[in-house]
Structure formats: C-alpha cells, structure tokens
Amino acid sequence: MVRRIAGLARIEVDDEKLPKLAGELSAILGFVEQLSEVDTTDVKPYTSPVEMQIKARADAVTDGGYPEDILANAPEKDDGYFAVPKVVE
Amino acid sequence: MGQDTELTALTLSQARDGLRAKEFSARELTQSFVDRVAASEKLNAYILQTPERALEAADQSDARLGTDDARPLEGLPIGVKDLFCTNGVRTTACSNILGDFTPTYESKVTENLWADGALMLGKLNNDEFAMGSSNETSAFGVCLNPWRAEDGEPLVPGGSSGGSSAAMAARLGLAATATDTGGSIRQPAALTGTVGLKPTYGRCSRWGIVAFASSLDQAGPITRTVRDSAIMLASMAGHDARDTTSVDMAVPDYEVALTGDVRGLRIGVPREYRLDTMPSEIEALWQQGMDWLRDAGAEIVDVSLPHTKYALPAYYIIAPAEASSNLARYDGVRYGARKMGVDIDDMYARTRGAGFGDEVQRRLLVGTYVLSAGYYDAYYLKALQVRRLIAQDFENAYQNCDLLLTPTTPSAAFGLDKGEADPLEMYLNDVFTVTVNLAGLPGISVPAGLDAKGLPLGLQLIGKAFGEEELLRAAQVLETAAAFSAAPTEWWTKS
Known about the structure:
The structure holds 2 protein chains of 2 kinds. Chain A is mainly alpha-helical. Chain A has a domain at 1-34. Chain A is 30% helix and 4% strand. Chain A has helices at residues 2-8, 18-32, 67-71, and strands at 77-78, 81-82. Chain A has a two-stranded antiparallel sheet. In chain A, a hairpin with a 2-residue loop joins β1 (77-78) and β2. The two termini of chain A are 31 Å apart. In chain B, β2, α5 and β3 (119-124) form a beta-alpha-beta unit. Chain B has a domain at 3-259: Alpha-Beta Complex (Amidase signature (AS) enzymes). Chain B has helices spanning 3-8, 12-20, 26-38, 51-64, 108-115, 162-169, 186-192, 226-236, 280-295, 311-326, 344-355, 358-371, 376-397, 423-427, 434-439, 468-482; strands spanning 46-49, 77-81, 119-124, 176-180, 195-198, 218-223, 266-270, 299-303, 403-407, 443-450, 456-462. The model of chain B has no long low-confidence stretch (mean pLDDT 96). By secondary structure, chain B is of the alpha/beta class. Chain B has an 8-stranded mixed sheet, with helices on both faces. In chain B, strands 1-3-2 form a 3-stranded mixed sheet, with helices on both faces. The interface between A and B is large, with 51 and 72 residues.
C-alpha cells in the first residue's frame, strides 16, 4: 500500500523504511478518522476563506521575454530549453 | 554598555524614530545588527547572512533620511524567512530539493518592504517547506531557542518560523517576516516571548512565497512589540494582481489604531479550549488575561466553538492534500537538485526521494492518499465540509463578541526530538492556532508571562476577518498589562 502511494507521489522510498512509514501513516489516518463522527449532511464543502468574485483580467500577454531568467536555475539546459532524459524511444 | 548594544536593544518603532531624529545613522544601526548576527551562529537562526547588501542599502537610506525621499521603514534592518523568494539571494525553504535555488524575482511582501526602505540582514531558518512546529525538519539543522530553563537543556524555538522567532528573541534584527499555515507565526512567537501576527487570509499577497497549503498560507511579521507588528503589516499587506486571493482593499494605518482603548469591547472565551491536559499555569495565565482586559474596560463573555476538536484532523487532511499538489513542481527539471535515474520517471522519484526530508515525505504521502481515487470523498471532501462547520462556529461566536482570547500553545518551549517517536505528538502543538487558519481569520500571540521554569508563555487574540485594527488595539492593551520585560541570558554569544 505505502509503495503504491509512494509511486503515485513519485517518491522513491527505500524498502527498509517501509514498515516504519506504514506505521506512521496508519497513525495519522487513524487520527483524522475522527471526522467520521461529524454529521455533515447537506453541508457545502468550504473551498476558500475569501468570499469574493475572483477578478478577471484581459486575455493578453503581459509577461515574458526573459528565457535566461527562466533557465537560470535549471539542473541541465540545452539551447534555450530545459533538458531531461529521453522520454520517447 | 557600548553604543552597539544600545542600538540592537531598540524596538523597530524606536529605531525608526531615532533615525528620523538623526540620533544615529542607518549605517551605525545596521552595522550593530550585522555584528550581532555574525556572532549568533550557535543559534542557527540565520542560514544565510547578507551583510554587504545590508550595509549598501543602509548607505542609500542615510542619503534619503532627513529629506522628503525618506520612506516609512527607511534604514530599518530585518530578517526574512527562507520561504520568501529574494531576487539574487539563495532561497531554499530549508529543503535539500531546492539546492542552491537563486530566484530571479522578488516575493511581493518583501518587495513591499524594500520599497518602503527596509533592508535585509539575511535569510532565516524554518522547518522544511514550513512543515513542522519545532524547526527540527530544516535541512540546515535545528535553530535553537535563545531561552533556556535553569537546567540548560537546549529548547526548540517553535516552528515553522523558528528562525524568525529566535532572531527576534535574541535581537538579531528589528523585525522578521514569517508565514503561518497552522500556527507557524503564533506558536514560535509564544515559545520565544515575542509578538507574532497572522493576518486575515488575503491581506498579504502570497506571490513569491514558497507554497505549502495555498488556502491556509498567510504571511505576517514576528516582532518584539505589538506596535512593531502594526508597522510591519502596514507595509507587507496590499493587493497584488499576481495573487488572485489577495483582496483589493485599502490598507489601514494600523499604528494609528493603537489607541489603548478597549472599553466596551466584548472578548469571547471559548469553553472548548479548556483542555484537561493543559498545565495549570497556562490556565492561570488565561484567567489573568481575562482580568487584564476586564480591568481595561472590556467585557468577558463565554462562547462556544463546538467543532474545535475536529480542527486538527481536518487540517491534517487539507494541508497535506494541498501540499501534495503544490510540491509536485519539485521534480528536478526546472530548478533544484536533480538525481539522475534510468528514465524520466525514475529521475523524478529519485530526485524527490533524496530531496525531501522525512516529515515532508510523510505529508506528501498522506496528501496523495486522501486525494486518490476511492478515498477523495471519505477524506478530502469530508474535511472541507468540517472546515465549513469550523468557520461557522466563529461566525456564530462573533454574534456575541468582538474578539476571542485563548492561550497560544498548550505548553512552553520543549526539548529536541519530541516528535521523533510519534509525529502526531508534534501536531498537537497547533491545537489552539489551527482553527484560525481554517476559518481564514487574523490572530496574534502576545508574550504574557513566564512558567515555573522561567520560560515564556503567550496569549492569543483572534479577530474578525479584516479586523486587524481592533485585534492590534486589544493586543497592545494586553501587552501593556502583562508588561513582559524578561529576556533570555545571552549564552550564545560566548565563545
């Protein structure tokens, strides 16, 4: 189970760490399980503390034109692009 | 006592007034702090010092001071939590996964501060990605609390803004920026005898702050006085088109709000915050806080927040869920430390396995789990429903009162490795603070007294949304009544 979740989260976890991690996650999930006691029938989910209409802006290009800044922290770059291991064989 | 000692003993407002009156220069003031910060490495509050930048900015401030070009925070040296992106200055959120990330842009909050004339002494330690209550999850190692009990045992400064709180307690700057997702400003302030203000959600722009849980995160100051927090917030707050959740509302002059008059104000005391496990001295301090406010002319009323016990469980679903989405960006492609693999998926997994610490990994796994197919409704949706009930509790309470008074934390500063055996024990630190984030409200911690071991304890005031003026006014009345003047012994400056 932990291995499957770690796979979904794209986190490599050493085998020897799995049992301890499984125990910790079970404890956390057991703790949050308390919520099942609460009657939430017809309660609307709360999605934002700010009760306001989010502002629309003009659909226009307002930023950009500095590829050097964007690439400045890249672990690997090539000719103005981020470089990654080959994705398609 | 030399002049340097005197200058670093000033509060932000005193230093501001002294600079304006030309009692000393911005360079003298800044040099005093630069020297004090350099001698504080045992505390590990600053993980990066920027003395040249600070002194250069001080000279520019000296040229402006005394002219019409002087700005509200002209020449005042402050520290910046490492969660705020600073242009050209390494920003890591105290995580190995960011490596030597050096932003090419500035967070809106720090941009506001520099535009008002403040200057940066360096970057402050925090829990990795702000996930922790003790500063122990930092990739740079724990920051120590300047306060110690008589037995000399090293204590944590709270977290996640532990560098910010320790720096203020040790006078390593006039103010510090911080962030609060579940208590990360108020809890460390309480544990170090300092003032920590978490503003209403939307009051400050989150743009350029490393994201943890976007519906809960909010920036605010940690300072030594309530007045200093008011001054800092006036500069940090404001609308920003780049954060659609920042509100387009005028920023009041918070300092003017500090009239010292709380007559007729109704202070609610939530009965659910009375825990069986709470030390009697915290109970007594809370009672003392009620008496102080009553003596100042406020009325104390009993209120109920019935869903309080479900706040931490809801938080530990919502915050990890949002974090698992926010931290998906750390994959070794665009920035940070990459760990190569046999293919791109393997590269992602190795980069994230090596770069994230244990607590961050735990929370990302919990977040991934509660959002995964088949569990979303049972966990995540349920937590969002409970969050509405918690927010409604506050709305109901505010029908009968203007502010709430609670303890900030269930205990004073504690020793290292408390959460080692059981991560849940660490989570319980935020029991009095986390409700405020879930409801998006403002809250402030004020130093109110010492426990039997001589360690500071804080009281928390909670306000209505965008009620920072009233909140700060009452906080200052509490501060004046408490007359907290204790200071830690300076063990860290000894060689």
